[in-house]
Design a protein that fits this description.
The structure holds two protein chains of two kinds. Chain A is 22% helix and 38% strand. Chain A is α+β, with helices and mostly antiparallel strands. Chain A has four domains: 2-202, no CATH class; 213-313, Beta Barrel (Lipocalin); 319-397, Immunoglobulins (Immunoglobulin-like), CATH 2.60.40; 402-526, Immunoglobulins (Immunoglobulin-like, Sandwich), CATH 2.60.40. The longest helix of chain A is centred in the N-terminal third of the chain and has 15 residues, at 66-80. Chain B is mainly beta. Chain B has one domain: Methylamine Dehydrogenase, Chain H (7 Propeller). In chain B, the strands form seven sheets. In chain B, strands 8, 9, 10, 11, 12 and 13 form a six-stranded antiparallel β-sheet that branches. In chain B, β15 (183-186) and β16 (190-193) form a beta hairpin. Chain B is globular and about 55 Å long. The A-B interface holds A 1, 4, 7-8, 10-11, 46-49, 57-58, 154, 157-158, 160-162, 164-165, 167-170, 173-174, 176-178, 418-419, 489-490, 495-498 and B 1-2, 62, 64-65, 85-86, 111, 113, 115-116, 132, 134, 136, 138-143, 169-170, 172, 188, 216, 218, 220, 222, 295-296, 311-315, 334, 361.
Chain lengths: 536, 369
């Protein structure tokens, strides 16, 4: 039923909306922006009455992320015939995001939705909102908007007017959807995600930070591993930058990334870079203070594949950002690298871990040979180099007591086969845990050690999957835990001519010395997401 | 699921064009299927011959969107179909293909859509359409109360409603009683409306249905296919509070039937919910038999609860049954209407839609002539 919701949306319109991140970051050919407020008055005020003082009917009653504003502006094009050039659209989105955006605090709990993190199982902060909105959308899509109660109510009217099946489809028909959405839900939304906030008032009063400079960065790319590197950011215009990055992975691989970015709302960094021969989008947020940038980057055509990143400005407070490897076995000798900034002074890896030799050192990086005592206590260590500190940066363990697969509930989607929608893989990782000092698993002192190598296997998840022989059709898993689906479309070889969907059980087998430790997770392989907006 | 225009499909449509008229002077009435398909087709099938005999295009429609509910006059002369992003109802003369009726639901600052519910009075003179209107104001939408628009079918191609009947939201089916004195509207409950005034004469409970420990039943009833037995039937799922969560018997599946002639409801739970059930039809001869489709074809005796089931080669949405009760016609996807024997549940034939387009969410109807 949900497919029919989008009957007014042409494929081209969807493509426009889906092309958003490129749009948001396409600063390469940056020219002087059209006077944005004048543009809003020309292009938007035909319907949205200007109220003066940079305010318009509806427009000024909500605040959104850059992606949120771009989705709305795109919809004004395909549903209401507003004609905008690429530059005009970009200028309006920038203006609205700056004037009516969200502070870093307001997005922090739900950034996964704009970062396009795969297979997130959501927590609904509010039941009425969850039951009304999150049966179709992600909860986070709602939670990265702020509106007046009246504007939330108008949004409910829009839903029924634009998508009348909302009242008939599963998830909507068990209730008086319209009455609820315009009643209790609008009231709850106005309270939980209302327009006014102290956080936004404070953020808006701050002066934007110039992001130019050198940055030290670390991160992790599932399927490849930890990396460290640096970035050079140069200002090219108002809130426009060029960026050049070097990434060095723990497996020895290196990547450089160059491209351009726009900063929205004083903190929302959106860049498109060429990285490893691919277009990669960066969705980062500059933390208050202007010295720390965090977020996720992902491949433009395959957003299930990417990595997280943390960058700190060179010359800011000394800090330890990461230790590679981050898990050390007691009674072993190991080579360890500490990544950070301002790494001057004595190295301390905590009790039971002794520096045997400093192999190399700079302000950014210290490479050591260490001995871990046989009796070293199991636990996390704060690592310090002079004034630089990294809490829980290193874990000492005796053995791997258990393993978990992440994501907990992975999902992949069939695609390709000449269709409009590419395959969506699922990148799995095996995370090792120690039971901690008490030796009991599932207690408060259990210790997450980190990502470990595993061998991967697939089986049918349940009886229905066995009957449909899902494991034979749904796809394959590669050595690095990347599950890749089979082609989309009805498969005449399958019962019911079913697509190559399936319910699988994935098992990670980890070797720990002479022992093996296993973990399993359900892996759902489902159909394409035909409408894949920037915020799902 | 790409639509391929196969040589076979093209030849079927070419063959249809050669057949200028229905076989005249046939001795016995024959069953004809009438339905729609993507992107803009209304077509007629000689059921026993498995042949498309007429294929017409719906004029002035939105080609990217498929037609939905289709209702035919009992004499098989006209089919009315909702199309054009659900904002238009057209009546197509099934002999000539001419558009003889057209009602635009939207106009001025009102955008109105007909999500599925529509029926024709038994005398063919009035068409009832459930309409969901929205006022498009500058900068915002304002959802208005829905209504049933009643049109005279002789109102031509610029039809305006003869009257508007008030009705609650979430109507998914409209069905006239065979005598024409009641218009059933399936909303939160199955309402019995006076077709002249819209006055609620009574109701069969659905949301308010009390049946032991059961919760509110759930169904998606958007497939009108009750003309053969004059029985509206829809599969439903229902929870049972006395069963623990995780107990397969906590969610059950059943068939809910309303005899439109007798104004009588019967229902039968027949299994723990385990398979998807889309739409149902009642056999006009062996009237306890109800057939339901999705990826399986399910026959349920709604008196005894006895159930038989066969797997299908792909997904089907709609099902109808021949006048002698012997053949089932199932369609909806992959440009294909399959024919099954209602006794053996064996596949005995199939019909390709003209052009190979899917029927999607339209109706599969049967008339005799």
């Amino acid at each position: 039923m949900r497919r029919t919701d989008h009957h007014r949306t042409s494929p081209r319109a969807l493509a426009l909306a889906a092309g958003l991140v490129t749009q948001l970051a396409a600063a390469g050919a940056y020219a002087a922006p059209p006077a944005a407020e004048a543009l809003v008055n020309t292009k938007c005020a035909a319907c949205h009455t200007a109220k003066g003082d940079g305010k318009w009917d509806r427009i000024s009653d909500s605040r959104r992320t850059p992606e949120g504003w771009d989705m709305t502006v795109a919809r004004m094009g395909f549903a209401h015939g507003v004609k905008l050039s690429h530059e005009e659209r970009s200028a309006i989105v920038k203006y609205l995001s700056d004037a009516y955006g969200l502070s870093p605090d307001e997005t922090v709990a739900h950034r996964y939705i704009i970062e396009r993190q795969p297979s997130v199982v959501e927590h609904h902060d509010n039941k009425v909102i969850g039951d009304t909105c999150a049966r179709c959308h992600s909860y986070a899509r709602v939670a990265v908007q702020r509106r007046t109660e009246d504007d939330w109510r108008k949004l409910a009217h829009f839903h029924v007017g634009q998508f009348p099946t909302v009242e008939i489809q599963a998830g909507g028909r068990d209730r008086n959807w319209f009455e609820l959405a315009t009643g209790d839900a609008a009231v709850a939304l106005g309270k939980v995600y209302g327009y006014d906030s102290a956080s936004w008032a404070k953020w808006k009063a701050q002066k934007p930070v110039d992001m130019s400079g050198t940055w030290r960065l670390v991160g992790h790319k599932p399927g490849t591993g930890a990396y460290e590197g640096s970035a050079t950011i140069q200002r090219t215009g108002d809130d426009r930058y060029s960026v050049a990055m070097e990434l060095r992975y723990e497996n020895g691989a290196t990547e450089s990334a160059t491209g351009s970015s726009i900063v929205y709302t004083g903190h929302e960094w959106r860049a498109t870079v060429q990285q490893g021969g691919r277009n990669v989008h960066q969705v980062f947020s500059l933390q208050p203070g202007g010295a720390v940038l965090t977020g996720r980057w992902f491949e433009e055509d395959n957003d299930a594949v990417g990595g997280d990143l943390k960058a700190v400005r060179a010359g800011s407070a000394a800090t330890v950002l990461s230790v590679q490897p981050a898990m050390l076995r007691s009674g072993s000798r190991a080579s360890v690298t500490i990544n950070g900034t301002g790494l001057d002074g004595d190295v301390d890896l905590g009790p039971g871990v002794k520096v045997r030799r400093v192999v190399a050192r700079s302000a950014d990086r210290v490479t050591l040979e260490v001995d871990v005592a046989a009796g070293a206590a199991i636990g996390a260590r704060t690592v310090s180099v002079g004034k630089a500190q990294g809490a829980d940066a290193l874990k000492v363990f005796k053995r791997i007591d258990y393993v978990k697969i992440t994501p907990d509930h992975p999902m992949a989607r069939v695609g390709g086969a000449g269709g409009s929608t590419p395959k969506v893989p699922a990148q799995l990782e095996a995370i090792a845990y120690s039971a901690g000092a008490d030796g009991k698993t599932g207690t408060a002192d259990d210790l997450r050690l980190g990502v470990v190598d595993a061998s991967w296997s697939l089986a049918n998840l349940n009886k229905a999957a066995e009957e449909m022989r899902d494991v034979e059709y749904a796809g394959r898993i590669e050595k690095n835990g990347l599950f890749v689906t089979n082609d989309a479309g009805p498969n005449p070889d399958r019962k019911y001519g079913a697509n190559n969907v399936g319910e699988l059980r994935v098992t990670a087998t980890v070797k720990d010395g002479g022992r093996t430790v296993k973990a399993t997770a359900p892996l759902i392989v489902t159909v394409q997401r035909w409408n894949d907006p920037p915020i799902r | 699921m790409k639509i391929k225009t196969t040589a076979l499909a093209l030849s079927a449509s070419f063959g249809a064009a050669l057949l200028a008229a229905y076989p005249a002077g046939a001795l016995a009435a024959k069953d004809y299927l009438v339905t729609a398909a993507r992107p803009n087709l209304v077509f007629v099938v000689d059921a026993k011959a498995r042949k498309v005999v007429k294929s017409h295009t719906i004029p002035n429609t939105s080609m990217g969107n498929s037609p939905i509910t289709l209702v035919h006059s009992r004499d098989g002369k006209t089919a009315y179909v909702i199309h054009n992003r659900w904002e238009t109802v057209s009546g197509i003369d099934l002999e000539s293909g001419k558009e003889v009726f057209r009602a635009e639901l939207s106009g001025g600052d009102i955008r109105a859509k007909a999500p599925f519910a529509m029926d024709l009075s038994p005398d063919g003179k009035e068409l009832a359409v459930f309409v969901n209107p929205t006022r498009l104001l500058p900068g915002e939408y304002q959802v208005l109360d829905p209504y049933i628009a009643v049109y005279r079918t002789d109102a031509g191609v610029d039809a305006e409603p003869a009257r508007r009947l008030p009705v609650p939201r979430r109507v998914s089916t409209l069905a006239y009683a065979p005598k024409g004195d009641t218009l059933y509207a399936f909303s939160w409950d199955m309402l019995k409306l006076d077709p002249q005034t819209g006055a609620v004469k009574g109701k069969h409970p659905w949301r308010s249905w009390k049946n032991g420990d059961q919760g509110e039943p759930d169904t998606l009833a958007v497939w009108p296919q009750f003309e053969q037995a004059n029985v509206f039937a829809t599969p439903y799922y229902v929870t049972h509070a006395d069963k623990k969560e995780g107990d397969p018997a906590a969610l059950r599946a059943g068939i809910w039937r309303l005899d439109l002639e007798q104004d009588k409801v019967t229902f039968k739970e027949f299994e723990n919910a385990g398979v998807v059930l889309f739409s149902s039809v009642v056999n006009p001869v062996r009237r306890d038999e109800t057939y339901t489709v999705y990826t399986q074809l399910t026959r349920v005796n709604t008196k005894t609860g006895k159930m038989d089931r066969v797997d299908l080669d792909h997904t089907y949405y709609n099902v109808n049954v021949s006048s002698d009760g012997n053949e089932l016609y199932i369609g909806g996807t992959q440009g294909d209407i399959a024919v099954y024997d209602s006794r053996t549940l064996k596949r005995i034939g199939n019909i390709r839609t003209p052009g190979g387009g899917d029927q999607v969410l339209t109706s599969l109807r049967i008339f005799q002539r």
